[in-house]
User: Fold this.
Amino acid sequence: MAESRIVMPGEMLVDRAERISYAYVDNGKTYSTVVGLYSEGKLVPLEGPYEPLPDDYVVGIVSEVKFSGYSVDVNCAYPAFLSSREIRERFEMGDAIFAKIISINEMRDLELSDAKKLPAGALAKVSSVKIPRIIGKKNSMIDMVQSGTGCQISAGRNGYVWIAGTGNASLAVEALRMIESQAHTHGLTDRVSAFLKGQKKE
Amino acid sequence: MGGPTENSPQLIVGGKRIDGRGMDDLRPIKIVARVLNDADGSAYIEWGKNKILAGVYGPSECIPRHDQSLYRAIVKCRYNMAPFSGAEEHGRSGPNRRSKELSKVMREAFENVIISENYPKTQIEIYVEILQSDGGTRCAALTAAAVALADAGIPMKDMLCAVAVCKIGGKMAVDPGKEEDNFGESDMPIAFSPRNGEIQLFQMDGLLTQDELQQGFALAKAASAKIRAIQVEAIRKVYEEPKNERFLLIK
Assistant:
């Protein structure tokens, strides 16, 4: 298994023209556009804005109630709209919802569907690039944080994480920050587990 | 920059510069990345006695709407000097002609490297605050802003850095301090794209011969490699020594 290395914007990845995400070709060579981890033709950004894709599940906050639906803040530079036709519930401004992006048009407007209201809680904002690590393989990491803190955690692919329930919300946020800052390292699961166990004893 | 007068201090004493540096020595530079909670990307730089904070936001919805482009992100840049930065009487700080010019030239440099077509209809904001000024703030500010942009994950063709060269005592030297900037015979800030040596900012004050210009350019290019290494180190530290919070450590 090849070692991955941290690369900088403008750093050469390979000495030939290759199609790599987040990289560009100039004069027959391929260069990175971001700070990322590069290994064997794959470049993963270590930071960056949320790049919405259809079928992403996101956490959103209702920002405006319109005649035919709702404008939702999904931590994205582009507006997200939830049509009333797509849902059975009614929402109010400020409600937190868990929804799916069903389409993105050429103007980059997002259309949401399958929305359900989240119970009373608080919003944590993390880097969307780290969400897969926060969720973990088959929800392993997020389940561990939920059981270790007693909270109900909904992680949106957009970087919004909703923390609800009567558990230790501030501990949950600390755990999230820990995963966020160390997402690129090995042995993180064990460290997070040890951290949560250590806090529980106190 | 006023240039030397009868009462100007001697800038070269005993073959050395007034702070003891050699002609191709940079002042000490320290950069820390990811230091602000609110910004998407940030960096703090101490370059000699300059202290500068850079914060970057975006891409986010372009406000006002009429500024937006359907084809790319709009890059906005604000260079601002704090009242206590020492550059002027403190009552006269804030936006002025000079800071508007610097905001513009910095913005143009970054517009050339930020891959703005990826984010149509949005804006990317770059803010640099000069907390303490001691000559060469535009170069230090640009260098810090480039780190802040990389910290935010905004895709760029390259991470820029900048350095100035000057003519003092008839000879070319790198990285003028405040006195060298004020009383030297010429001042030339240059921003580079280290990947291919492309120039992204190039300004000049004073008079230089073609030869002197080439010498200065070579000095700047050599210095830019050292500055780039410091920028890269600052970014690596974010990942090699991860911290849960973003803050400026006072050691």
User: Anything to note?
Assistant: The interface with chain A takes residues 40-41, 58-61, 115, 119-122, 150-159, 193-196, 232, 235-236, 239, 242-245 of chain B (CB under 8 Å). Chain B has one domain: 20-240.
